[in-house]
Amino acid sequence: MTDFFEGIAPVRFEGPETETDLAFRHYDPDEVVMGKRLEDHLRFSVAWWHSFAWPGGDPFGGQTFQRPWFGDTMELAKMKADAAFELFEILGQPFFCFHDVDIRPEGDSFAESERNLQEVVDYIGTKMETAKTRLLWGTANLFTHRRFMSGAATNPDPDVFAYAAATVKSCMDATKKLGGQNYVLWGGREGYETLLNTDLTREAEQMGAFLSKVVDYKHKIGFEGAILIEPKPQEPTKHQYDYDVATVYGFLKRFGLENEVKVNIEQGHAILAGHSFEHELAMAASLGILGSIDMNRNDYQSGWDTDQFPDNPREVTLAYYEVLKAGGFTSGGTNFDAKLRRQSLDPVDLVAAHVGGMDVCARGLKAAAKMLSDGLLESARAARYADWDASDAQEMLAKQGLDAIHDTVVKADLRPEPRSGRQEILENVVSRYV
Q1: Three-class SS of residue 290?
Q2: Is 305 annotated as a binding residue?
Q3: Does domain 32-374 sit in CATH 3.40.50.300?
């Protein structure tokens, strides 16, 4: 145990009228929405890296946070785990996520780092025996260390490829041991800075081979969770190969992995790719690869991924509308890949940030559920495409060639006029629920 969160009681649901800072206004985990408890819909997760490992730096300044567990010893790693589970108890969220380097100190060799990982995993496992919080997913950090400056799977040095593969093997073992429900690969350095020194074909083949080995190992060890790729277009590299959901799907199809791998979609990454969050979610659902989400937001005045806690109910509502329309999460969930602002130094800030994010998500999901149940958007969508359900339209689409279609247009003297998409009306519909 630590005294880091001393004096902060477990957060309770008090309703919209409460004036308590550390209370839920909209998130009642036992509230039933569309036949399911809110906790089971949202499946909240705390990110170990931002909440416990991040020192509070930015591109222009270093550490601002002072945490008693910062340092590279096993004792401090276990103190960090103690603090993490204290926060989990305060928030009552059902899941957490981690990278290997978040939970264990770096060793002088790969073997020592692996032993450190195994020891901390065992320690976390003992803590999970008396906690409600489970592991949503694990992953490997293949981007921070200088050895990964030119990529991991896509590195021109085969020794780095091998080191990355060995690291993922260790992290998959750790994830399985802790009962993780997914395993995520984020290719933070899988891209390039300049084409002048990059072989795109070779690097794609390496990346495909790497992912195939991950899938093979999943089946070898009997890991029942999903393998997820997290799309991101840029930052830190100029161009990353897992640019967006559509790009990832094309990559999966190229290597025959579209039935083996899904996506973990982050709101901030969607924005960097020039999309909305709901677009990426809808695209993933359409392609059958929607797995899980990282919930955060960007500062729209900044040009990078600022990883702020969500605070926009309308954005969140539209996102959960797509999740619910796709049937909701199975093994996935809502991971807060979000960090405090570097001026927010105190333990209470970390609790309050998660409380606010959980409330905004709960508010958004409930609005999305009501919107989906009422069916106004779906009925308008169906009406817009209704003529395609006619037999002649279906025959044209499935059977007729251009010559037959041409003859029909000439014979019927077709002169179609444009029809309103009624966008503003539908935007007003959404506003009724938010």
Answers
A1: strand
A2: yes
A3: no
DSSP for residue 10: P
pTM above 0.90, yes or no: yes
pLDDT averaged over every residue in the chain? 97
Q: How far apart are CA 203 and CA 216, in angstroms?
A: 20
Q: Give the model's confidence band at 27: pLDDT under 50 very low, under 70 low, under 90 confident, else very high.
A: very high
Q: Known binder of ligand: residue 269?
A: yes
The CATH 3.20.20.150 domain(s) of the chain lie at: 32-374
Strands 191-192 and 239-240, by their bridges, are antiparallel
Q: Is 403 flagged in the annotation as binding?
A: no
Annotated catalytic sites, by residue? Answer: 99, 102
Residue 307 assigned as binding residue? yes
pLDDT digits (tens, 9 = 90+) for 101-111: 999 999 999 99
Which residue type is seen at 121?
A: V
> What would the pLDDT profile of 180-233 be if each residue is shown by its tens digit?
999 999 988 999 999 999 999 999 999 999 999 999 999 999 999 999 999 999
Q: Which residue type does 433 have?
A: Y
Write the CA distances from 37 to 29, 30, 32, 43, integer angstroms. 6, 5, 4, 10
Query: Which residue, among 183, 289, 395, has the nearest Cα to 280 in the 3D structure?
Result: 289
Distance CA 234, CA 255 (A): 23
Cβ atoms of residues 172 and 188 within 8 Å? no
Rg (CA), the chain: 24
- Token digits of residue 397: 């689409």
Specify the DSSP class assigned to residue 58.
B
Least confident of 16-20, 58-62, 67-71, 289-293: 58-62
Percent of the chain predicted with pLDDT > 70: 100
